[in-house]
């Protein structure tokens, strides 16, 4: 799934068309500096540098003299990102080079947006390629941007693939392929062996499926600080015996979006050779229904020894994550990050475009906010609000997987997970959506990575790399 040749820059070419990226606020002043013929042509085309707009300026003999790309004004840039992705989709065939003169972070956004605009999900149907290619702007790290784009494409492919072809076994195969491509080690615990090796909640959630549940454990790197990424791998969620209505089940192929995101992020980290030790843990299950399905009111004993009363089988993600988090916590890493499509409450709070995160680690939160701005990957900090701890304590067991009342659902889920990382000083949990509900520049409708680029940008400061 990493064979995305489209998501690469063109080699430098003397024949590349110059592409001028123009701010709408400064466009009039720029146009006055151009020859009269150019002014007349641009005005005739109605080009005013609106965000994502394009104007081709003809040269001699039918050639292209230059292309103009609109970046919009300050308001439009605040409301959206990756204007250059929209430009790339509109340009005619050819190789283009963005004229210099913009700050490095803006040039990186333009370059990455261009590559992301080339993504297409082609597993089941060939998609027409965008014909415009970009030369990597000078002074940018070509390999880094291509690695980020490839990681994002991997995440999108995994989420977009329906569960018939992306069940727990297929997710394992994708992780194995990624590990092989980077020389990483991988170990997988499957089926009844989960009970033998003390992963009881992963087994309980996945045992009703025709495809056995499993825990995927990938490691890479021999030196530096240790980073653990834990990703929710619920490949389909019927809701279990608390079955979802049809309308709520329609997008449940994306309920493994956390695992898809950590695998995409893992590719970025390994491809860039970051000086750290990486561990990726993915509890991969399908929450199905048969005679062996776990039930409401069951009490499960977790790997950590904490007991959990199941008050809703549709709150299964936190159960499988808990066993994986407990495993990682037994040898505490320098930083542990959990990513999951966990609660509808998070979507109500921040919508589909923002990655809410929870952490007690102030330096990491600060680094993450800075990284999110530079990577154009929005995040928002939510609180581990200790006053809500009693809500996840049912009395009959240590923990409740689905507190009654309906308030603060994303917070109570995060508090539940935090109970399983008591030895790890630095922990963050992301409650992501993993889906783009409507096409936007650089982000077609469908599976999408959330938070990975922000984390990648934050790691050097957060781990002193």
From TrEMBL:
CC annotations in GO: cytoplasm
Domain Cytosol aminopeptidase: 312-319
Any single Pfam family the record assigns to this protein: Peptidase_M17
InterPro entries linked: Leucine_aapep/pepB, Macro_dom-like, Peptidase_M17_C, Peptidase_M17_N_1
Any one biological process term the GO annotation gives: proteolysis
Upper taxonomic lineage: Bacteria, Pseudomonadati, Pseudomonadota, Alphaproteobacteria, Rhodobacterales
Protease in keyword set: yes
The species this protein was found in: Litoreibacter janthinus
Protein name from the UniProt record: Leucyl aminopeptidase
GO molecular function: manganese ion binding; metalloaminopeptidase activity
Keyword Transmembrane helix annotated: no
Keywords: Aminopeptidase, Hydrolase, Manganese, Protease
Family of this protein: Belongs to the peptidase M17 family.
